[in-house]
Amino acid sequence: MSPSSLKNRRVILAVTGGVAVYKAAELVRRFKSEGADVTVVMTGASQRFVSPLTFESLSGNKVHTDVFSEPMAHINLPASADILVIAPATANMIGKLAAGVADDMVSLVFLAFDGPVVFAPAMNWRMYAHPAVRRNIRTLRSMGLHEVEPEEGELACGEHGVGRMAGIGRIIEAAKGCLRGKDLSGLNVLVTAGPTREYIDPVRFISNRSSGKMGYALASAALRRGADVTLISGPVGIDPPPGAKVVRVERSEEMLDAVERHIEGADILVMAAAVADFIPDEYSAVKMQKQDSLVLRLRPAPDIVKAVSGSRKRPRLVVGFSAETGPEIAKARRKLDEKGMDFVVFNDVTAEGAGFDSDTNKISIIDREGITDYPLMSKDACADVVFDRCLELSKPGTRAAENC
Ligand code: PMT
């Protein structure tokens, strides 16, 4: 990602009332160091945690707190802003925004702004899990707002759970991602995500630890960047990004079938799904009864990416992921050729903060020119790196561009 994508951008930072307000001060500093011009708007509750003077000193701009003392500020400010970042976003503010209530500076600015909006919830874990909050967040996401999900850890109340405001780096990355523009518009992107389940009998299956987060981050990034996205998903417990055409499958053979049905017209295929390598040779139509021992015979599952990359329907770019249990780049490099991919994204699923289920990943991109290593990043940022590489490979004169 270009480090300068925030340079000279006008950021409205909306601060709402929770303990995490103190972190918003650091957020202002980071936006400024990236070259952005930051204007802070605050709710009354947030001012009880940190004074507007702190934000005024850090941003170098007037802080807006009162609708009535500046009647037109909620219209004028958004008119010249590039992005609105709401951090921390309380349960109360999330509810107001979802309902379209506008009774303070932050909610008024929100309604008067028609650009990209990033929000970073921060609250007690039970509040974050409450069905009312879940519903309101779904509503905001369906309106196109980008949620930077809270993290798990010790909360201000002393309890442990998911509710801590996302790290400053993740919020900055999300803002940069939203300002990137529609550089994938006109492209059809097919993404696979999640695990497959290979059934032994009607109640038992072989599967793996994939949560779908990496594939869903890829689908979100492609949508945000203007692509038409089809997401073929194994069984996962997360919501698909609004705007994606979602095809749900369970078994690897169903995933192959879905990919084959949707590959026509796709420009880019990204296989982030953790597809089974083996499937039970026999399926028992009734639940198998307990016995002293059981030997399962497995046969190879269909290799989806290999089948597609060798077919006449091959998209211009075929990207795979390689999940290894150690720094075994050589294995990923071999898969690049064996499976006919344009590049492969290596991740060591045993590395801290990488691989299955985490919100972050540490990837290396391997293509025929070499290997590029990336630091530990959010899966959203990894997704942007993958599509940046796709765009580089699509430039005239590159091998993938010649496949057109
Ligand atoms: O879902 P998360 O919890 O966020 O975790 C993300 C992830 C670790 C699952 C993801 O980053 C990842 O590495 N996905 C690929 C996992 C995998 O199947 O790796 P592999 O090295 O076994 O396969 C290489 C490539 O072949 C992959 O693109 C895979 O989708 C594809 N494949 C594998 C088997 C098969 N039968 N058909 C395939 O197409």
Write the layout of secondary structure elements.
Layout (H helix, E strand, L loop, with lengths): L9 E6 L5 H13 L3 E6 L1 H4 L4 H8 L13 H7 L3 E7 L1 H9 L5 H8 L4 E5 L3 H5 L1 H12 L3 E2 L3 E4 L5 E5 L3 H11 L9 E6 L4 E4 L2 E3 L6 H12 L3 E6 L11 E4 L3 H11 L5 E4 L6 E3 L17 E3 L3 H6 L7 E8 L4 H10 L4 E6 L11 E2 L1 E5 L2 E4 L3 E2 H15 L5 H4 L2
Parallel strand pairs: 1-2, 1-3, 3-4, 4-5, 8-11, 8-13, 11-12, 13-16, 16-17
Antiparallel strand pairs: 6-7, 9-10, 14-15, 17-19, 18-21, 19-20
The site of ligand PMT has 29 residues, from α10, α12 and β16.
For the structure shown, list the relevant keywords.
33% helix; 404 residues; 24% strand; alpha/beta; Rossmann fold; 2 domains; five-stranded parallel beta sheet; globular; binds ligand PMT; eight-stranded mixed beta sheet
Kindly estimate the percentage of residues that lie in beta strands according to DSSP. 15-25%
CATH superfamily of the largest domain: CoaB-like
Sheet/helix structural class: alpha/beta
At the first level of CATH, the class of the largest domain is Alpha Beta
Distance between the termini: 25 Å
The helix content, as a percent range, equals 25-40%
General form: globular
SS field, number of helical segments: 15
